[in-house]
Amino acid sequence: MALGVTGLILGSIVRAIAEPYTFPSIATPFYIAKKADLNFGNLKVSAIKDGIIIVTPDNNLITEQISRAKIQRIKEQGTAACFTVTGLPDYTYAITLPESCILTDENSHAITANKFTSTPSVTGTLDSNGIGELHVGATFNVFSEQDPGSYTNLTDVAVTINYN
What we know:
By secondary structure, this protein is an all-beta fold. The chain contains no helices and twelve strands. It has one domain (about 30-164).
């Protein structure tokens, strides 16, 4: 024999509460540290027309003569800028480079660097230890009447990285 139980409760409130745990994930900060400056080397310019010097991200120094420009490297080889990027392992990051910058000498003579390029070019990936290297090159525009001097820019060349 089976016993059946039925009932009707009126006016009762059944309530259930669930309290979720929260797990915030705070990303490891990205760091970028300069290992080497972008250096176009020591140059001797005797020109009728303008010329350019290109330092590629892989440290190739290319001299392009426009018309009859004569640009000669003296003693020092140009080098690309180099940065160490650190963050979360295997994460990718976006790279933003400046469009151009003005370099000046001690007498305020100006010259332009532009066409910045990098390796990796647009997106980099950190290795399994959270480390990557970024190399940056650019084009240095040499004018036929360029004044001799040591040209520098210590503030306008920002390399920006962001987590993707």
